[in-house]
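Class, study these two lines:
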Amino acid sequence: MDFFNENGGSYTENLIGTLLAIFGNVLVSISLCIQKYSHVSLAGAKDLRAFYRTKTWWSGLILTCLGEAANFVSYAFAPLVLIAPLNAVSVLTSSILGLIFLRERCKPNEFAKRYGLSFLGCIFVAGGTYLFVAFGPNSHEKLEADVVVKHLVGWPVLLYMLLEVIMFCLLLYFYKRRGANYVVVILLLVALLGSVTVISVKAVSAMLVLTAEGNMQLDYPIFSVMIVCMLASVVFQARFLTQACKLYESSLIAFVNYIFSTTFAVIAGAVFYLEFKNEDILHICLFLLGTALCFLGVFLITRIRRRPKTFEPYVTMDMAKGIPTIHDKGPIVQPEVNGSFNYGALVNNDGATPITVPVNMEQPPDVGRSADASYNHSDLKKD
């Protein structure tokens, strides 16, 4: 216990930081569900109001700010390697809330077939979270400005930052010049920036907490440097994540980004803040086992579930003959069901005036009938 008191770390501080991180991730998941509900409600009711004029969207935004604030403060109390893997709690909560709000009615065997692996993934995430929290590092330093500078100028950190910069430049070259828009490349860029983010966030959060306790840290230049690094890395992370979301599915991005971001964050905490310095091999192995279980659980939760497409006949019009045709080869160009009257892939906008399509109903000419018709027509003219 003397060691913990000298280094400013204790089981109580770790518990506070862990609970704050879990609370923040749960709150962020709830806020995202509320904001999603706001967008869906506006689209379903065909409300002309903007989403930022609704109370539900603003309540979701407030909960997001509170959750991110709790995550931010948690870095000041617990080691970085404990806080970073707790993002799996957000994935777990989102999965449970999505299942609750989905309200699908299906038989038990169908439910087990569709959601069995997701339920197993939730168990893995819960078990892995317990392992890496229980056997993770228990000691961490009080990050005063002088301590942060001492870590920053150490040769392990300088070597780590050099390797990270080289790797980032190579990935950026292949991404920009070679057009390597692979999900691994983009999310590796995000993870490398994320390691800088968590390093700077932990330093800024710790110095702000020390300042609130009466030990002024805001007038040191390293505080301003860390603030700039934190904001710049967050902005560029958002840009790369936006590009990834445009190219790939959200479930794939969530899984790969969680693995890469957690891995680089743990490495950054181990190298920059030396958080595994006084840990034995058994605790480190159990910590890694818990993290691996979280990786597996997130993979099972975020896997892509493709539902079989049911047959929906659709009708098209042959413009040459005006003959309606019923197709029976599956929903190839079947439109979405939006309550409006439409054929094929032509959607009738509710605000637009429907256009009448001319239909040619002429039959093939017949010699006898055409002669009789011309004879009768000429007789009528003579009369």
